[in-house]
Amino acid sequence: MKTNTILITGGDGFTGQHASKYFKSQGYNVITTTKKNKNKDTFKINLNEREKVSDMIEKLKPQYILHLAGQNDVQKSWSDPLETLEANVVGTMNIIEAVRKVNPQAKMVIVGSILENYSSHPYGLSKALQALIAAKWVDFYNLNITIAKPVNLIGPGFSNGVCAMFAKKIACLEAKNKTGKLIILNQKIKRDFLDVRDAIRSYETLLLKGERGETYDIGTGRMVSIMDIATIYKQLTDYSFEIEVKNEPVQLNVPEVNPNPLRSLGWHPLYALHQSLSDCLNFYRKNTTCGGDETG
Q1: Do the Cβ atoms of 109 and 207 come closer than 8 Å?
Q2: Which tens digits make up the pLDDT trace of 150-209?
Q3: How far is CA 213 from CA 132, 144, 232, 270, in A?
Q4: Nearest Cα to Cα of residue 84 among 109, 115, 44, 52
Q5: Alpha-helical segments (H) within the chain
Q6: How far apart are the first and last CA of the chain?
Q7: 3-state class (DSSP) for residue 51
């Protein structure tokens, strides 16, 4: 394999597709993993199958590994916590162990989540365990692993995030010329939103410059309310829709991130929030098949 080979797990996901495109544009030899279709640049594999993971790492011996694969839906983690733990913990352990045994010189970035600070749901717990194991394997075996904790990633592409859900709803209302509304569960909810393309650049920075065993927050450091997101979307369409605000008891805010350690490595975000939301909305305008009731 070429010396700049990068293995990207979860290559068919929202972030993985952007990562594959970006690293190819930068001249890397990109190999992705998937559970679905296979081609010359893709390994069809279940990362929970330890021997197959080991065989893959031994065959490829990638210089870099960007581990994105996993179960990233909080709501799904409530309905199927075991699947979430298997995907996020067992899959990660299999990758790390394969690297330890057959390719210990590889540089890895394990992508967790800012929500690992919350063990109040199975998803947060799975991400906390994922990060803990990665850090301990650095201590135990001196592996070259860096841990990334991204915030909510947004931008063009299919995603389960709130910005994508709003964009799809608006695109369908426009297409059907129907009245409708966006629903905000609690107007006090705030999140840090980062464009997925900026996140990918940050992962490359960590692969090249990230310190062994360190954890880096990936975000803008600016909290934005969900109401502000809906308001920006109103500016991006000529179509009129209602914003309905409820007052449901939900987890309001996550801790603000500290992007300074990442910025000290030379990274900074390029995409403004308005641009990210515009690109997201335009993607759904071009790629959404609308069905069912889009009025709610």
Answers
A1: yes
A2: 999 999 999 999 999 999 999 999 998 888 889 998 888 889 999 999 999 999 999 999
A3: 10, 7, 38, 27
A4: 115
A5: 14-25, 50-60, 74-79, 81-85, 91-102, 122-141, 162-176, 196-209, 226-235, 260-263, 273-287
A6: 51
A7: helix
